[in-house]
């Protein structure tokens, strides 16, 4: 938000960092970093957080630039509104719905990323994780020759698919609600 509002060197630096993080293939780099840092829940949280903020930051920056150019923000600035006042009252109010929608989308991606890394054994072995449950079920030698797969494999896979699907549907519904509630700009 600050990069989009202030512009200049801060915008250039943050935009460059966002573009670099978006250009990197996330899962292979997460695997390498996770293997280097070791098996820990906090390492996994920091790795996922380091790669999750860039798409949201790019959208926030673009929306902030759009809002910054609106007439009422320019008038508030002319009447003496400071940077933090304008960000807090005028820009933050308009960015909150977009931030909420993006946060839910990031949660869905983070669930899949954590499960992927846990399936590969990069999570804390004592932590409860759907990826770890799937990995242990697949490692069972007689899984597919018995009926154990219905009890060991289907619940974590179903929970993983259902949670990400429901989050995606929630995000889609909120996006549609925001489009419907927002008045059109040319009327």
What can you tell me about this protein's structure?
The protein is mostly helical. 79% of the residues lie in helices and 0% in strands. The protein contains 9 helices and no strands. The longest helix has 37 residues, at 83-119. The chain is elongated, with a radius of gyration of 21 Å. The model has no long low-confidence stretch (mean pLDDT 87).
The proportion of residues in beta strands is under 5%
| Overall spatial form | elongated
Distance between the termini: 28 Å
**How many strands, what sense, and barrel or not for the largest sheet?**
none
Order of helices and strands: HHHHHHHHH
Radius of gyration: 21 Å
Helix count equals 9
Low-pLDDT residue spans = none
How many E-type strands?
Answer: 0
Structural class: mainly alpha
Please tell me the overall pLDDT.
87
Percent helix among the residues? over 70%
């Amino acid at each position: 938000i600050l990069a989009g509002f202030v512009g200049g060197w801060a915008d250039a630096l943050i935009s460059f960092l966002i573009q670099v993080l978006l250009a990197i293939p996330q899962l292979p780099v997460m695997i390498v970093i996770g293997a280097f840092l070791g098996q820990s829940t906090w390492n996994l949280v920091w790795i996922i957080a380091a790669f999750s903020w860039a798409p949201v930051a790019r959208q926030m920056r673009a929306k902030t630039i759009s809002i910054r150019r609106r007439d009422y923000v320019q008038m508030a600035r002319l009447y003496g509104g400071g940077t933090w006042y304008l960000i807090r009252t005028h820009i933050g109010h308009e960015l909150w719905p977009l931030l909420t929608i993006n946060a839910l989308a990031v949660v869905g991606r983070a669930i899949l990323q954590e499960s992927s890394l846990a399936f590969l054994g990069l999570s804390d072995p004592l932590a409860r994780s759907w990826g770890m449950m799937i990995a242990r079920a697949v490692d069972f030698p007689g899984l597919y020759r018995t009926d154990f797969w219905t009890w060991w494999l289907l619940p974590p896979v179903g929970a993983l698919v259902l949670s990400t699907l429901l989050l995606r549907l929630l995000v889609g519904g909120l996006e549609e609600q925001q489009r419907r509630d927002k008045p059109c700009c040319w009327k």
